[in-house]
């Protein structure tokens, strides 16, 4: 009798609802716990990744601060926020780095651009892209030296009309079989340099800099 | 899905043979083709995707088998999907936090495991009707068959496409495995289409055909043996 009652109950909508509800509640609980446990290690890993790519474009000899701690967020010409990481030597801005977006053959290309305080390019690294393997992926530093051609260049060198690939009358090489990818990257970097030119004063002024470490140190005054 | 799947107490050897060859996820069931074609540009990627899928498939089979008494047929699909999606998210978070290098290589593929219909397929056709141990073995063997197929597919495409085999394996498996990275054809210009999506379809087509041929030959040989045995008898 009780077996029949149980089996009837199992067929009913109440049991089905309870079962679904219980499953979802258990899944949600597990996910919340896992998210809390892994949030900190994941943030740490991402900071390490960011530090590694910043170190690629800003030489360690140029700064004595933690690059991640002295970032500032500005908006670019199209209203998108750009996080700029600043390299400090004492209180002087010696270099800065930020991500620029380029548009290649197969979508967005994320580029890390490192500039000296005078606007010269220190280094360019492609962080992620979806370009065709074997053709467009020569923008990676591991595959070709192409991105090194930007080092030492600035907005006036070459002049603005020659900031393009050779096919468009510019100064930079394209690859055989791929023009769209390098064209996109060159354009993206030029956009990044224009962003620097527009915000130069705000980015390099000594007065706006407040070193994170200094603020922390201020809790213990040096006078007796 | 053959009838033998649904019988209780399937012998272990049969489960293993089903998973690896005769009921192979890709070559026989033709399931999970989306992640298969998307990631097999290199043998290493195939291996990574295969191993991650095997882990999720085994655990999901065990869980589905454990709750099979409580789950009613009417709501089984949403319940299984919640179980699988939760598992994949847990694997994703865990790898990101504690095996970050591996996560960078596999990152995109892990989310793809959710849409791998092979996992729902095994939950539905095997795990929900069998005890925990056979279900776990079925998950493991189906995963193994999937992994082997992905590695073969990735290997073929990689050799034709770039002339290497297991490029980047040390990133996935650690420096100790760097001996796997081979350059088979030095200064190879590359047969680009092999690593592009069309190459995936081509290679898969040839692989499917090869399995049909091997199966047909085996069936022929068995038939001939049976006739000879009958004639002698």
Describe this structure in words.
The complex is a heterodimer of chains A (224) and B (233). By secondary structure, chain A is of the alpha+beta class. Chain A folds into two domains: 2-42; 60-204, no CATH class. Chain A contains four helices and five strands; from the N terminus they run ααβββββαα. A five-stranded antiparallel beta sheet of chain A has the order 1-2-3-4-5. Chain A is elongated. The N and C termini of chain A lie far apart (87 Å). In chain A, 27% of the residues are buried. The model of chain A is unreliable at 214-224 (pLDDT under 50). Chain B is mainly α and 233 residues long. Chain B has one domain (11-232). Chain B is 69% helix and 2% strand. Chain B has helices at residues 12-22, 33-39, 43-66, 76-98, 100-114, 117-125, 132-162, 169-173, 197-232, and strands spanning 164-165, 182-183. The model of chain B is unreliable at 1-9 (pLDDT under 50). At the A-B interface, helix 2 of A face helix 4 of B.
Write out key terms for the chains shown:
A: 224 residues, five-stranded antiparallel beta sheet, disordered C terminus, B: disordered N terminus
Largest beta-sheet characterization of chain B: 2 strands, antiparallel
Overall number of strands of chain A: 5
Biggest sheet of chain A, open or closed, and with what strands and sense?
5 strands, antiparallel
Q: What do the pLDDT scores of chain A average to?
A: 84
Average pLDDT metric of chain B: 85
Number of domains of chain B: 1
Beta content of chain A: 15-25%
Structural class of chain B: mainly alpha
Distance between the termini of chain B: 35 Å
How many domains of chain A? The number is 2
Percent helix of chain A: 25-40%
Low-confidence parts of chain B, pLDDT < 50 over ≥5 residues? Answer: 1-9
Number of helices of chain B: 9
Label the structural class of chain A. alpha+beta
Q: How are the strands ordered across the major sheet of chain A?
A: 1-2-3-4-5
Task: Summarize this structure briefly.
The complex is a heterodimer of chains A (224) and B (233). With 224 residues, chain A is of the alpha+beta class.
